[in-house]
């Protein structure tokens, strides 16, 4: 099992053995001058290889992170609408329909600074130490392994910088080949406009190096052990690098379309991520002790603690995946009222007109419906709003509406029943019951009384995210996946950016097929249970865990062709919006940054925000710097402080004006 191999490898990296070597690699990081390359060679350990493997396992770089994922869910969803927090979209808690400041709602605001602080320490120090050791080695004495690991460390360095500049624009930057602060050099603050061309060209050179590289047997064996992401597969690294270059080229398409076109043309015929298994990321369980994952570390703890955001977006289920509630009407007190009775999923999943990911990523409500929630605000004044129609389905055909003797209604699965009792006025008067019950059911669901703030209950009154992909400790955190590569090529083809091999339709269709295959596998291959270590949370219902596993693998090609036919009839702008929807749906709550970057970039092209921000929260154009810079580096603070404003669009958006939602 690969996880066991990775854990064994990481253990070996920490223990050097005899020959007077220090016992832990971590001591080397803290005191690199205390351990020479000569000593490392005698011990059979490459210092640079050690830094390479360590870099791959950095928190929040290529794997999940509890704290960051928590805040991505909590407040990232309010920006992008990936998951719905009903208390900010309905009147259930009495929140006013007024504008809220999401900037001061990111916990301690530490998440604002996470990526910035990481690029200045955890994400860069291994590269700098490795570079320092590499620079000490005479050029004619550098081994094939030394050069390979150093080149790949620069790939990871460039990836880290891309994430940082996409959120902050200007960050402290060290050029390739520099050991930076370790050699007394001060980092220079550079922004997207300067860094993107550098890293795009740098990765081109590294990919060309890899394309002509043949490893000897000893180096290949070592590489397979050291490389915990791609298991020493040079082709996978080439695919990763080329897909990164494609991502970056698309990111700057609004401001440097010539570079975009050049890069896309250069990538023609080169290997890129193109399989469902092609994902750049590391599973938490590969490096974290299993008993710590559930309660202390890892992204699954964030999912468990943020059941608030587990409510499924109507925009995904209904608008993107074509899972449409069956709407019926009834006349009550002379007024025509509508309700959702069921949905089209059973027939649609069978005939390829409903997205299979409905069954892989989301869970039905206790009425057996796939019905989500909106991010627009519903104050209860519209009796036929989407949320009201979902709630009305619970009681409208119950005897409580027509029999004066029935004064309470019980609903839900056996052992998980909910009961709502009428008040005195509704008890005595049938004409008062609809209004009372609608408000009661809206409040019950909106205040999370149905699930008790627990993800994975069998009591959810609207659809939620499916628990099985969420609580799959083997899932490799998808920092970059083949689906994104295919969607980028589709957008480039639609917009005429470079010479794209294949049509937009072909890439769009393939992206859907890959995403369906990926999420089916993440769901059904989940080997964990409530009895394993780590385990599903004990307060999850076993029935929910069982029913969240799809009964069959639906025909992704049939659905992808159906969606591609719809895609054919769209305008270019509508096609690009559909491409974005597929990107956000695929990454969902596992990857906030990539759809957030795409949304900000596309506002200029589309003339509107393709995401689904909550109406009651301000839109956030960028993240803010760590204010401690003002004291530690006043010179650079004077430069960057003028950009320390979340209302200021970042350079790559091509905009000077902030996008505003309906309340701004």
TrEMBL record:
Question: Does the UniProt entry include the keyword ATP-binding?
Answer: no
Q: Which UniProt keywords apply?
A: Lipoprotein, Signal
Claim: Signal is one of the keywords in the record: yes
User: Record's InterPro entries?
Assistant: SusD-like_2, TPR-like_helical_dom_sf
Q: Supply the name of the protein.
A: SusD/RagB family nutrient-binding outer membrane lipoprotein
Task: Report which superkingdom the organism of origin falls in.
Answer: Bacteria
Which stretch is the leader sequence?
Answer: 1-20
Q: Which organism is it from?
A: Flagellimonas alvinocaridis
**Organism phylogeny:** Bacteria, Pseudomonadati, Bacteroidota, Flavobacteriia, Flavobacteriales
Which is an annotated Pfam family here? SusD-like_2
């Amino acid at each position: 099992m690969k996880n066991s191999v990775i854990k064994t490898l990481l253990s070996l990296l920490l223990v050097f053995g005899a020959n007077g070597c220090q016992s832990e690699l971590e001591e080397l990081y803290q005191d690199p001058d205390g351990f020479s390359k000569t000593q490392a060679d005698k011990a059979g350990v490459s210092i640079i290889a050690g830094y390479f493997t360590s870099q791959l396992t950095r928190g929040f770089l290529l794997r999940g992170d509890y704290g960051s994922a928590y805040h991505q869910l909590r407040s990232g969803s309010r920006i992008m609408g990936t998951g719905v927090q009903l208390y900010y979209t309905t009147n259930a808690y009495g929140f006013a329909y007024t504008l809220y400041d999401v900037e001061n709602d990111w916990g301690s605001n530490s998440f604002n600074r996470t990526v910035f602080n990481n690029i200045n320490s955890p994400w860069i120090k291994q590269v700098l130490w490795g570079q320092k050791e590499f620079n000490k080695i005479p050029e004619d004495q550098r081994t094939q392994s030394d050069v390979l690991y150093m080149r790949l460390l620069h790939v990871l360095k460039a990836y880290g910088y891309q994430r940082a500049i996409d959120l902050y624009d200007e960050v402290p930057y060290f050029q390739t080949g520099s050991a930076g602060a370790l050699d007394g050099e001060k980092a220079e603050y550079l922004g997207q406009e300067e860094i993107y061309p550098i890293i795009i060209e740098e990765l081109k050179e590294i990919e060309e190096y890899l394309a002509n590289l043949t490893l000897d047997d000893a180096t290949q064996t070592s590489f397979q052990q050291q490389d915990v992401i791609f298991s020493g597969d040079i082709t996978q690294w080439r695919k990763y690098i080329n897909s990164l270059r494609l991502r970056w080229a698309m990111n700057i398409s609004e401001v440097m379309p010539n570079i975009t076109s050049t890069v896309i043309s250069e990538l023609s015929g080169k290997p890129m991520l193109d399989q469902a298994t092609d994902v750049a990321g590391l599973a938490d369980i590969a490096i974290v002790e299993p008993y710590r994952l559930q309660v202390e570390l890892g992204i699954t703890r964030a999912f468990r603690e943020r059941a608030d955001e587990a409510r499924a977006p109507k925009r995904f289920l209904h608008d993107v995946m074509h899972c449409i509630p069956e709407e019926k009407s009834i006349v009550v007190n002379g007024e025509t009222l509508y309700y959702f009775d069921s949905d089209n999923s059973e027939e649609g999943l069978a005939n390829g007109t409903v997205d299979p990911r409905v069954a892989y990523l989301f869970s039905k409500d206790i009425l057996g419906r796939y019905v989500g929630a909106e991010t627009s605000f519903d104050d209860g004044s519209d009796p036929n709003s989407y949320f009201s129609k979902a709630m009305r389905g619970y009681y409208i055909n119950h005897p409580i509406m027509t029999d004066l003797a029935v004064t309470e209604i019980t609903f839900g699965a056996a052992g998980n029943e909910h009961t709502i009792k009428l008040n005195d006025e509704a008890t005595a008067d049938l004409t008062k019951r609809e209004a009372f019950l609608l408000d009661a059911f809206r409040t019950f669901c909106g205040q999370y009384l149905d699930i008790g703030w627990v993800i994975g209950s069998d009591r959810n009154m609207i659809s939620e995210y499916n628990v099985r992909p969420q609580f799959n400790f083997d899932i490799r955190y998808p920092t970059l996946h083949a689906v994104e590569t295919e969607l980028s090529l589709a957008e480039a083809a639609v917009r005429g950016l470079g010479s794209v091999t294949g049509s937009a339709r072909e890439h769009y269709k393939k992206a859907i097929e890959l995403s369906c295959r990926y999420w089916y596998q993440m769901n059904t291959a989940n080997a964990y249970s409530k009895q394993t270590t780590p385990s599903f949370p004990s307060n999850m219902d076993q029935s929910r865990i069982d029913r969240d596993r799809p009964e069959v693998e639906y025909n992704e090609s049939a659905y992808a062709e159906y969606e591609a036919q719809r895609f054919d009839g769209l305008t270019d702008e509508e096609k690009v919006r559909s491409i974005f929807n597929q990107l956000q749906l695929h990454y969902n709550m596992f990857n906030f940054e990539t759809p957030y970057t795409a949304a900000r970039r596309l506002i200029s092209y589309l003339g509107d925000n393709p995401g689904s921000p909550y109406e009651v929260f301000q839109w956030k154009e960028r993240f803010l710097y760590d204010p401690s810079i003002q004291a530690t580096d006043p010179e650079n603070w004077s430069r960057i402080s003028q950009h320390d404003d979340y209302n200021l669009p970042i350079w790559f958006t091509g905009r000077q004006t902030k996008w505003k939602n309906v309340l701004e």
